[in-house]
């Protein structure tokens, strides 16, 4: 059994979780530009060295925390039907965008991505890419089951599924009524050309 070399940093999961929580709270309260490593360390109850053992910079730390938070919230449920899968995916998207902290963080991150093209590219690759892969897998299962046409325009379909929710909740800042997901699923099934929609 390999031993950890003497003096090597051992990353404790509970410390990483405390730092992650601190990053999200600082982002929600201070915004991207005003967040500091010192404030994160203080809120997490650790020294700055604990942050630098995990990430080389503030940008890397924020990207890692936001990516982990976002990608793990993409619904990967396989309910056996496109309708069921869409319902799970759309509800998970709503839950992600309306999370008490993330709903305050997202607009600032979108603005930061617009100002910093490299950061925007990283967000698309590390958050948008994996989340779209989950959505594509869901649609490909539906094609295999014969629920969707084989020539489905995958890029357009993925946009059609996410855009209305983002527009409603983030841009318009409107509520998602209790029946919103069911109405949106019915609409999406028609838009995708689902069998029997």
UniProtKB/TrEMBL annotation:
Matching Pfam families: TetR_C_11 (PF16859), TetR_N (PF00440)
SUPFAM superfamilies to which the protein is assigned, alphabetical: Homeodomain-like (SSF46689), Tetracyclin repressor-like, C-terminal domain (SSF48498)
Gene3D superfamilies (UniProt xref): Homeodomain-like, Tetracycline Repressor, domain 2
GO molecular function: DNA-binding transcription factor activity; transcription cis-regulatory region binding
Domain of life: Bacteria
InterPro entries: Homeodomain-like_sf (IPR009057), HTH-type_TetR-like_transc_reg (IPR050109), HTH_TetR (IPR001647), Tet_transcr_reg_TetR-rel_C_sf (IPR036271), TetR_C (IPR011075)
Positions of the HTH tetR-type domain: 13-73
Ranges annotated as DNA-binding: 36-55
Alphabetically ordered keywords of this record: DNA-binding, Transcription, Transcription regulation
Protein name listed in UniProt: DNA-binding transcriptional regulator, AcrR family
Species of origin: Amycolatopsis tolypomycina
